[in-house]
Amino acid sequence: MNTALSQLLTQGYTLITPTGRLSRYLQHQYSTLQVSAGKRTWETPDILPWNGWLQRTWDGVAMEQEMDNILLAAHQQQLIWQRIIDRSAWAGQLLQRNTTARQAILAWSLCQQWQIPIFPEDVYLNEDAFAFQQWARSYQQRCEKNGWIDEAMLAGVLTQTTQPINQDEKIALIGFDEFTPQQLTLINKLKHSGCVVEELPLQHRNTQTVAKGFTDSAGEIRAAAWWARSLLGSDPATSIGIIVPNLQTLHAKIENIFADVFLPGAILVNAEPLQRPYAISLGQPLQRYPIIDTALLILGLGTQPAALEDFGSLLRSPFIKDYEKESQQRAKMDAVLRKYGEYRVTLKSLRWLIASKRIKANDVPQSFINCCEHYQHTFQVAEKKQSASDWAKTFTNLLQSFGWPGERSLNSAEYQTVTEWQDLLDKFAALEVVSPTMSYKEALMQLRQLLMSTGFQPETAEVPIQILRMTGAAGMQFDHLRVMSLHAEGWPPKAEPDPFIPLKLQRGLGIPDASAEIKLRQSENLFQRLINSSPDVVLSYPQNERDRPLRPSPLIKNYLEATPTQLQDDARDYAALLYHAGEQEVIDDSRAPIIAAGQTVSGGTALFKDQAACPFRAFARHRLYAEGLDTKDIGLNAMDRGSIMHDLMEKFWKRLGSQAALLAISEKDLNTLIRQVVTGTITGYQKQFPLTFTERFTRLESDRLETVTRQLLDIERVRAPFTVNNCEYWHVFTFNDITIRTRIDRIDQLTDGRAVIMDYKTGDPKINHWFSDRPDDPQLPLYVITSEGEIAAIVFTRLKRGEVAYVGLAQEDNILPDVKTVTNTKSVKDIPDWPSLMTQWQATLDQLAVSFRQGNAIVDPKSSDSCKHCDLHALCRIYELTSIYETTEGTERK
Questions:
Q1: Residue 795's beta-bridge partner residues?
Q2: 757: containing domain
Q3: What backbone torsions phi and psi does residue 137 show, to the nearest 5 degrees?
Q4: Alpha-carbon span 513 to 527, nearest angstrom
Q5: Do the domain assignments include residue 79?
Q6: Same-domain status, 732 and 807
Q7: Cα separation of 279 and 259, whole Å?
Q8: What total number of domains does the chain contain?
Q9: Do residues 361 and 296 share a domain?
């Protein structure tokens, strides 16, 4: 802080700044000055942003003149505008009414600041402006009726008071580029009231300015980080500012690169957290903080069943009661819900999982279930319509049902976030001023909007390096300043006129963003002020964005000829230095330990299918027992639909039993039987999928099942006589010391005693899935070669509406419709007869069994289709390997 400002504060002046950040900056500078002077205590300096000073002045005037107007907070104003728009004639044309309300508030604020009547009779109004005019009139009427004023109106109301204001106050305005007509009118009112008002220009401190381009934004950011680190190393007391116009876009990249440059040891395991010498000034919406996200997920349980992904996040959240105690059980319940549940989760579905023993008794997270039941009770006893303050209490009670924010000690950032949440609930409660009652759904929606519009950043100790946006740097001064991302497409920014105010009015008054010329002039002024604010200024821009070249901003061209010094833009990151410093050791991890001869292992036919598709998949699933988490979507997935069809066929043939019974039953009785079996099957699945089996969906699914069943029976009638021996038959046998437990969908017995083996498929099965040295579907071949009885045919039974058929092979023709012998099947090559087929399958499956037992675990997918539906990509890293191979091959071709 310079001497002039310090002296003004000593003389009792109030410093007024355009932004809150500049106010905090000056307060810190003043405190630093007092400490350097050896003082241990001092009076807090009176430094306020313009809006803060307005509200303090209003409080004093309102009390002195006994005014009972209510000053609306931003979220109260948002709700009023939103309801006005919802009830207007234009509501049906708007896709995002909340966003429209926010834009209308901005237009209203501009009209107040620039003292624009809404609107003069001689100004042409398009549909947007006309709609805004009607909304604004409704808003004015409500404000007048209820005695409300808002922040945008505040300066105008103070100007219109008949009594003098702040007569004995001394004010110094610092950091303002220009004043709006509303501000100028109020300033004149203050002067006429006897208030001392001074406007302080910023110091011109610049002595050196250089500009440079970098290959891309990453190189530009890394150069800035090393530049700041070098300056800080030379003088720990120096102040450094880094201005980034598009800070929101580059935030994550800046965070990563600056952490790498300033805290390289943080990448090491068990590294102690260190104090960062830099601060990125970009508050995130409160809703995006994990602890608040958990709170909203809990509160969202009251509006509708939770989405599976959201419920999984709740189960894994550390901000819920007994998380550490039940973390394993909750993780298992998450996996079970993904496998057996629906796309949404209810307490009823949780109880079904437990009752049906889909989740083992020891794996039930009982504390979490108790929290859900407590929450349900709390929600049910709450009034359906309440005031905002009562809903705030209900929200707190609902969160307490889950023990939020948890039992572990919160770190500093989390503690500050929870404190901000409590303050925000108080703000939410104030909505009852403008809305006496609301439903739970509306209350939660308003709370979410308030959270999204509330920017928050946990407070940290003051640091020497400040990373700011353009607007955040207003009036601030640093020893060293760097302005980044100054390419022609980003700076100066594009003009964006307000859509609700006639363009003629905006341009006539010179409102910001009204035209490209006005925007350019303002950008030039801001840019020059930034340059003047620091002795040492570095300007930079990226020369490329991905594959697109970028040009420097025309505002920095005059500085590009200068030669920058000590810019360490070629420094390598710490992780890369560690990587290249190490010696590489190549380890062949394609083989697992051999399974000793005579040692029996367990696995179903999926073991052979996985070994054929990719040896690593078989190793990971059947020896490491690795599996990915399932996902759910609306409706039934292919596996669920297949399960329903399997259960239907089992129930039907257990009732009917044989072809003779099928031929003997009357059409009427057969239809009755089909409907009974379909209804019974669906009833069982309705308990598992209550949200999916709505009345309409149940009708559609019943129709599908009945149709497919009748189409199957049409071809069952014309085949050779048979009796259904087994349905969903569990067969356990040993093959090459591998114990196999498989379930055969159906086994029919012909009159000569031979068997027909069936595998139901609701997709599009093919015979060639049984062949090659790596068969896609080895289940039936495996069963055939290990069966003791004679097999007459093996088939896929395609259960697909309009395409029901048998797809397979038989010992001779006419056993099943359209099922031919090995010799007469075109897709089967080099196999002369049925015994040769058995021999080939025996050799193929022996080879797969030996490969598995010998530990072959190489990542070797049979085809791209093998990886398409695999859930082990993160474990085998096939796509990383593919990228490496493609890069290597590309290099060799060059």
A1: 758, 808
A2: 638-853
A3: -65, -40
A4: 16
A5: yes
A6: yes
A7: 11
A8: 5
A9: yes
β 47-49/14-17 pair status: parallel
Asked if the model's pLDDT at residue 632 lies above 60, the reply is yes
Same domain for 543 and 478?
Answer: yes
Same domain, 658 and 763: yes
Residue 65 has phi, psi (to 5 degrees) of -100, 10
pLDDT of residue 77: 95
- Distance from chain centroid for Cα 198: 49
* Distance (Å, whole) CA 608 – CA 626: 16
Whether 334 contacts 316, CB under 8 Å = yes
Q: Name, in order, each residue with C-beta under 8 angstroms of 861's C-beta and a sequence gap of 6 or more.
A: 613, 614, 867, 870, 878
Residue 561: predicted pLDDT: 58
Dihedral over Cα of 289, 295, 300, 306: its sign: positive
Task: For residues 396 and 373, give the distance between their C-alpha atoms in angstroms, rounded to a whole number.
Answer: 16
Query: How does pLDDT run across 304-358, given as a tens digit for each residue?
Result: 889 999 999 999 999 999 999 999 999 999 999 988 888 899 888 888 889 888 8
- φ/ψ bin of 868: left (φ > 0), alpha (ψ from -120 to 50), beta (otherwise): alpha
| Residues 818, 822, 828: CA angle, nearest 5 degrees | 100
Helix intervals (H) in 301-340: 308-316, 323-340
- List the one residue out of 308, 289, 306, 288 whose CA is nearest residue 297: 306
The set of residues, in sequence order, having a beta carbon less than 8 Å from that of 334 and lying 6+ positions away, is: 311, 312, 315, 316, 629
| Contact between 157 and 58 (Cβ < 8 Å) | yes
Shared-domain flag, residues 702 and 718: yes
Q: Are 502 and 119 contacting, i.e. CB atoms less than 8 angstroms apart? A: yes
Answer for the pair 196, 525: CB distance below 8 angstroms, yes or no: no
Whether 308 and 340 have beta carbons less than 8 Å apart is answered as no
Structural domain contains residue 625: no
User: What integer pLDDT is reported at residue 662 of this predicted model?
Assistant: 93
What does the pLDDT average to over 46-73? Answer: 90
Joined tokens for residue 21? 């950040």
Are 682 and 759 members of one domain? Answer: yes
Apex 270 CA angle, 268 and 272, nearest 5: 95
The pair of three-digit structure tokens given for residue 467, joined into one six-digit string: 């990373």
Peptide bond into 405 cis (omega under 30): yes
Written as one letter, the residue type at 143 is C
Beta bridge partners of 306: 345
| Helix %, strand %, coil % of the chain (to 5) | 50, 15, 35
Please report whether residue 531 resides in a domain.
yes
Work out the mean pLDDT of the chain and round it to a whole number: 88
Classify the C-alpha dihedral 713-715-717-722 as positive or negative.
negative
pLDDT at residue 851 is higher than 60: yes
Backbone angles phi, psi at 541, to 5 degrees: -155, 150
